[in-house]
Structures are given as C-alpha cells and as structure tokens.
Amino acid sequence: MNVIILKCPVCGVKLKAVASPSLAGKIATCPKCGHKGAYESFKDNCETVVNKGWATSGKAYLVYDNTGAEYPLADGLNSVGRYAANSSKADIKIITTDSSLSRKHANITVNKVPDGQIICSISNAENKFKTFVNGIELENGDVLVVNPGDKIKMASSVFHIEIK
After folding, report:
1. Is the Cβ–Cβ distance between 46 and 60 less than 8 Å?
2. What is the DSSP string of 2-38?
3. How far apart are alpha carbons 113 and 160 in whole angstroms?
4. CA-to-CA distance for 77 and 88, rounded, in angstroms?
5. DSSP E strands: which ranges in the chain?
6. Is the same domain home to 44 and 74?
7. Is 126 helix (H, G, I), strand (E, B) or coil?
C-alpha cells in the first residue's frame, strides 16, 4: 500500500492519504479550510510515499523515544497528553518532565481497514506547542496518516508508533 501527500489547492495544507484508484471522481474536503473539490484537484503536486509496512494484525503502541515507555493505543480515538495528577484530560497520559507537552496535546486514531491492516492517523488537540510528523507541522484541522517509525514530535517530546 502506498501513501500520498495531498495538498489543498486553496490553503496549501498537506495531508497523507492511502493511495487508491477508487478515489478518482470522488469529492475531497480539506479539514482546515473546508474547501470541497474533486480528489484530483488535491492530487496536483502530490508526492507518493512508499508505505513502510503496516501490520495486518497486532496492536498499535505509542513509544516515547525519550524514555522507551510504550503506551498501548485502543482502536478508535486516543487523546494523548502529559500526565498531571487529577487534571490530565487525555486517554493516554504520558509521564514526562516536558511541561510544554499539553495535558491533551494530540489525537491518534487507530483504524483497521477491510484488508486487515492497522492504519493510524494523528491530529492536534488542545495544545499550545506544535505537533510535527517527520518535520511537517500539523496545523489545527490537519490529519496525517502516520507510518510505523515516523517521528512524531509533540512539544519537546519525541514518539513513534509500533505495531506488535
């Protein structure tokens, strides 16, 4: 499976999507500016990224590179943030000294697609400090598909996703 990076023709936001011939002729909506247009208009100047190998079974984990701690991700929506006694709003509470990591920093969604592959995507939540995937900044409204091993930087903390 290949992943393509799409670019909204109006606001320029970049999104990763699973490449599929069935998308031809479909309407796409930019999650940032709301522009609706033919999928092909979003594909102009897109780049194809070879998938690094999503697993067809197993469980997704968010791995905190700073400590090696592994946090299991549930199917569906997982909010990720800094652990703060009695005040963390996140499902996945990261134990860290990084106070710039918000108590609810990002959302990671885990989906199992019909062919059995596990696909994870990330979006910003209620954060003050930015989130980056492989150096690409997530603006509010952006949703990016993340491959196993992609570098996810939330504030000053670095993570990656593993499927085991």
Report:
1. no
2. EEEEEE-TTT--EEEEE--GGGTT-EEE-TTT--EEE
3. 21
4. 16
5. 2-7, 14-18, 27-29, 36-38, 47-50, 60-64, 70-72, 76-82, 92-94, 106-112, 118-124, 131-133, 136-138, 143-146, 152-154, 157-163
6. no
7. coil
Dihedrals phi, psi of 21, to nearest 5 degrees: -65, -25
Q: Could you give the CA distance from residue 10 to residue 12 in angstroms, rounded to a whole number?
A: 6
Q: Examine the pLDDT at 152 and tell me if it is beyond 80.
A: yes
Reduce the DSSP state of residue 39 to 3 states and report it. helix
Q: Is 128 helix (H, G, I), strand (E, B) or coil?
A: coil
* Alpha carbon distances (Å) from 104 to 3, 25, 90, 162: 28, 37, 5, 21
Is 55 within a domain? no
pTM of the model: 0.70
CA gap 98, 148 in Å, rounded: 23
Tell me how many domains the chain contains.
Answer: 2
**Rounded distance, CA 112 to CA 133, Å?**
21
Q: Do both 40 and 68 map to the same domain?
A: no
Instruction: Summarize pLDDT for 88-146 with one digit per residue, the tens.
Output: 789 999 999 999 999 999 999 998 877 777 889 999 886 888 899 888 888 887 888 88
CA distance 31 to 44: 17
pLDDT at 15 over 50: yes
